Amino acid sequence: MKAFHFFRHSRTYRRMFLHTYVLYAASSLLLLLAAGLFLFYQDSHTIRNNTLQAAANLAYYADDRLSACQKLSASVGQSERLINLSFNAATDLDFSLLDSTTLFAAQHDLVSAKALNRFAATLGVYLYNKGYVISDYGTLTLESFYQSIFNMSPNVFSEYLRPLGSGSYLFLPRGAVEETGTPQHPLIVLSVIDGNSRRYGNLFIFLDERQMQEDIEQLLNNTDMEYYLFAGEGRLVVSSQSVSADGLMQMYASLSSNDNYQSNTAKFSGWTAFVGYSEAYLLGRLHSKLWILAGVLIFLLLSGLPLTHTICRKNYAPIRELAYIVSSPEQRSDNRDMEYEALKSIISSIFKDKSLLEEQLLIYRPLLVNSMLLELLEGAQPRTEILPGLQKLGIHFPYPHHLCCCLLTARATQDFLMSLAQAIRDEETGCLYITFRKHLGIFLISASSPEKCRDAVDRLLALLAEVNPDAFLGVSDVVNDLELLGTACQQSRSALEYLPSDPFSRGIFWSQVRQSGVLKLALPTCLASLPAAFGAGQYAEARSQLNLYFQTVSRCGLTRKEHLIHARDRLLEAMSRAEKEQGLCFDSISLQGWMPEQPCALECLQETAFLACDRLEQATLESREQQSLSSAQILMDYLQLHLLDEDLSLSKLAEAFQLSESSISRRIKQITDYNFLEYVNRKRIEYACGLLSETDLSVNDVSKASGYVNDITFRRLFKKYVGVTPGEYRRQA
Questions:
Q1: CA pair distance 179, 236, nearest whole angstrom
Q2: How far is CA 552 from the centre of its chain?
Q3: Among 146, 179, 612, 686, which is most buried by a count of CB atoms within 10 Å?
């Protein structure tokens, strides 16, 4: 607990802690604010997309339901019982004269039609000029049916009793009649048409709001959404919330102007769907996200206290150590009082001694010179400010012409660079060295003429050949303005990205790079299929690709190192694929350790690549030879197995091995030195000789057992190969 006690530390530490913690808190707040704004934007965008999609789905549902009503009207219109009733003129006014069985059957047709359409609560059919209405729950007089819906007596001029146009319909919302609050369900009225397109009645479809709500909730798949479906302005079909009849018009206008709800108008029905979220739901959602962000912020602020303490202790430790060293025993008695101001006064007193200050400058002069020269080359500071500083440190540029050389070597130490710089200086040539990186040094050569600059480069290359033959030197163009030193430095560094084809050349001149055209050379794509060629054992194609690649990437004796590294990577990939698919084993360790800076790098890479092709070629030839031997052995085994078959022929062998007869004959000739018939006859006669000497079979039976159907052919061939007849051979045996 002592380490975390804030007031036990010095005022300097407390100021450091507060400064660091304020920066941390501000950064955390800004980061959390940006994350919160992004999340809020994403959330609002997601909600808008969801409501737009839901409104489109609800509009599609409206079209689908009205289309289903049209189909229901068409199917009901095909009922033969209803058509017969419409032609029964004797019962226009009194349906009690009708046969009860006929009415029950017509009613059953409506029950069946309603069962196939869950959205319909009740169906009723009014036949024109009749005094009754047939429904799925019975037959009513037109008077009672019309009174139950409209609270008035039927009128022949009523639009609900007249034929409607093709595709037309009438919609009556729930609670349309204010006095009675009827009908109990929304009502759709359509014409009933028979097979001859004759309108002979009207179909009254009472929609089942509860079933429609279940279908819509399943379609939207979001219980938090509110939805409203209007057949016209203020004519509500179905909704997720109960709405009073008095507020329908205000509700429609409010939904149209509310940004929280999205609307979509159905193309077929013309009904308008509104889908969205209530204000209370959105506010609750916003409050929950704000609470989460507040919790995260509190967590970050609390976790920042030990983190800031750890950072400050680490940063304050060197100050305390230095204060302890330079302070007196009296000042150490209470280290909490060792403030930054006292420490600063003690340190500043050290530099009051001029000789000590000059000693410090001598120690740090090489570092200052190196740093300022780098700024001069890279253009980090204005040159008008750097040059006076260099002059005060004793660095001058008395010559008008300048040249940069970038040295790439494993020995780019300060002593090594200094010895080379001193070796090439003369009365008309100056040379400064800059330690740039671990393996990279820079020489800044100034001379009285461009020729002197180039002579200095030649001397530098000669020295490198003696003391470090593996080094590479990138040489820029000669410039005559200090403002162009940055360009010259970039040229010398860029020249090191290329490799000379001559293994003994260690100098890459930017002028040579520019004139060779290698700058415009893009990476060739001819090695794209090299792994596939190695994997398939196509050594000729692989060799051709490598030859083409190495010819393409070189221009006027220069090759870009990046292109060679690409060739190495593709070759390693090809070797790996050949090992996987061909079962070969390559020595890839040397290739993995290959670097463009090593001696004879291009020759080593080419030699390794073509050795890999040779290894692939040898393995492929061995594999093919093994396959050929295996195939020949299978052929001879098959021939020995079927040697005594009477139907043995070249065509049978060709069919068995899926080869041509000439190929089969040629292979047998290569293996046995005999053609097919010669070999078969010799083997059969040898077998017949064994039968004649070891068994008592007749010559005819021996002929059949040896694979000959014709006894005469057997005797002729036996005489030809043995020199005697079969009978004489048996007597001699």
A1: 18
A2: 32
A3: 612
